[in-house]
Amino acid sequence: MTSTSPVSGTTATPADSPVAVAGAIDAALSTVRRNIATFGGAYPGDTTVDDRYELRPAEGSIPRGGNRGWTTSFRTGMLWLGWELSGDEAFREAALVDVADFARRVRAEEDLDTHDLGFLYTLSTVAAWRLVGDPAARDASLLAADHLMRRFLEPAGIIQAWGDLSDPAQRGRTIIDSLMNMPLLTWAHEQTGQERFADAVARHTAQLRDHILREDDSTFHTFYWDAATGEPLRGATEQGASDESCWARGQAWGIYGFAMNYAVTGDERLLEASRRCTEYFLRHLPADQVPFWDLVYTDGSDAPRDSSAAAIAVCGLLELAKVETDAARAAEWTTRAHAILASLVENYAPAAPEDSDALLLHSVYDLPKDNGVDEGTLWGDYFYLEALMRVARPEWRKYW
């Protein structure tokens, strides 16, 4: 169904129609192609600066443009999506360059002290194994899964988040993002049959369900356990407005992460957790369907938006719709996902691909630290393209 433009009176195409989605994909892939030419095998930073990506800063022995941090694989994931959407071998060739570098990174044990190994290796080497059957990528993925298991803390039953495991400031801490890192362990269980991987997923996701999800259906960003006794201690935030507020991107991770882990564990309480995260998120959206960076803010606020949280939520809603056991709810989740995506296409993508190196404008990385505020982000770009893929090709098999 078309609508009439309030400005011209002409017939306008809805922003979530097949034609609009196809146009958004074409525009996005044009930008991804240009970024291949710009960066080659080097990696852009986490966020744009004035809507342009710069080379990732050097750190220690890792040179400028090197493969470090938690976001480099989102570029690789976009390359794989670009190849699947277009068939253009340039995307596949560029992705395989990244995959070889991720294999090198894990063998060299370079910058691996993070739970985000799931982000890093699912979208790079696991995707390579799924899509092209690369045996070296499979080996690298299993090495990464083994490294991630080193962060599993008994008897707390959690994967510790950041940093050196001996750092007392981080000991026993996990974050809601970790839900999205569990698919690496699920994949490793599928490949090896080793129950330690599946057990870690089941125990970790249950702990987050019980403690990171609050009674009012909002979420903490981070939560601490006593690493020695397993006692749950307290919730907090690193990137939200306050410990008691609800960081928008974290709530979106909850929608997607709980739904995805329900699908592999069969734990009905994870399905309910995803529903609860969803309902809270949707209740706190402003009129244009794209959240402020923290859900404490509402229409009329001048706080920045976080379009990346919206893109993650679209993917999460569509994933939830696939596993939802109630048909009416599944239809509602799908409808709401399309509405959010339509707003992103119409209001948050660059007016023309050449206007920015990002696929999606107006994201926030870490407002309390004034990092990447009102900029493009690699993860926002990736999840926007995944959202477009999910709508254009509902049968698409996710990399997670």
Q: What's the rounded overall pLDDT mean? A: 95
How many E-type strands? 11
CATH fold name: Glycosyltransferase
Catalogue the unreliable spans: 1-12
Descriptors:
disordered N terminus; 11 strands; two-stranded antiparallel ribbon; single chain; mainly alpha
SSE layout and pairing:
Blueprint: E1 3-4, E2 11-12, H1 18-39, E3 44-49, E4 52-55, H2 72-86, H3 89-107, H4 117-132, H5 135-149, E5 152-153, E6 158-159, E7 173-175, H6 182-192, H7 195-211, E8 222-225, E9 232-236, H8 248-265, H9 268-283, H10 307-323, H11 327-348, E10 363-366, E11 371-375, H12 378-392
Antiparallel strand pairs: 1-2, 3-4, 5-6, 7-8, 8-9, 10-11
Describe the protein.
The protein is 51% helix and 10% strand. It has a single domain, classed as Glycosyltransferase, CATH 1.50.10. The chain contains twelve helices and eleven strands. It is mainly α. A hairpin with a 4-residue loop joins strand 10 (363-366) and strand 11.
Structure described in brief:
51% of the residues lie in helices and 10% in strands. With 400 residues, the protein is mainly alpha-helical.
